[in-house]
Amino acid sequence: MIRSIWWGKRVGMLAGLVEALGLAGTAALIWRNYRSNPGRVIRVRLRGTREDILLRARTSDFHTFCQIFALREYDFENFEDVRQSAFVREAYEEDVRAGGTPLIIDAGGNIGLAAIWFARRFPQARIVSLEPEGANFELLRRNTAGHPNITPLRMALWAEKERVCLRNPGAEPWAFQVGRGPGAGTEVSFEALGVSDILRQEKHERILIAKIDVEGAESEIFAKNTEWIDRARLLIVELHDHLIPFTRTSRSFYRAISGIDAEVVNMGENAFVFTGMPDHREAVACVAGAPATARVPSVAYAAR
User: Fold this and answer.
1) Best CA proximity match to 158, nearest among 190, 188, 186
2) What global pTM score does this model have?
3) Which fold has domain 74-286?
4) Local structure of residue 70 (DSSP, 8 states)
5) Cα separation of 226 and 223, whole Å?
6) What angle do CA 278, 279, 280 make, to 5 degrees?
7) Phi/psi of residue 71, each to 5°?
8) Spans of all domains in the chain
9) pLDDT averaged per 10 residues, the chain (length 304)
10) Side-by-side strand order, sheet with 232-238
């Protein structure tokens, strides 16, 4: 059975790549990735676009690209039950109709792939993408240069404004961790901001989406100054107890969301936390016009 699941995921990823890149584009990406020297920058172009996305061959960049654009791990609008997702989309559209600019925070921006995904799905939103590591940030800056609504910041997300350091400079590009005190290598310290700092800086009161994939730093982000959480329509958080065992990195996250009115859907590696949801009767009435394929169970649906 495990072998069947493994093959099923690989087939699904390949099908997703073909959908995102076309058959020729998929073949070219796989060939370039595995035939190039490790770290060499290769180019890939999404179907229907004129902009190249830069990846480093034979690094975690390829895996990250597949997760976001082939497996579509942030595509909460493609859940089997679409009711919670419909309220996020409606919040976006209401803000745009009112002349506002919805705010998306991308913490752990890596090389900008998630920011590009959100920019394509929410083109009128302003996206602030934070990435502290230098090489990652340079690719993030280059990859998002064609998207004026994406602002790259070489910073980390934290509970509050503070100086932090890289803890594992020799890690894979997706696995850099930050913490207090001197780093384990030669990386200089850099500035970290709290979510409330970003809201003040951007002159926003609410957040449409906060995506947080910060390799364990969620333990600090959710430890204090969490009054912003119920001002975010959706949190997308990857937890890392599996990456840093025995450190309880998820504890502060669960404590923080337990005190707010929210529903949690677990999909893949991420917890999708929807806030400000109506009760069941209101939800059924509000999404009566949703696609006929949408299920309407009597309890919140947890995606498999």
Assistant:
1) 190
2) 0.87
3) Rossmann fold (3.40.50)
4) I
5) 7
6) 120
7) -85, -15
8) 1-72, 74-286
9) 53 94 97 96 96 96 97 90 89 97 98 98 98 94 98 96 78 70 61 96 96 91 95 95 81 94 92 85 54 38 29
10) 150-153, 126-130, 103-107, 207-212, 232-238, 270-275, 262-267
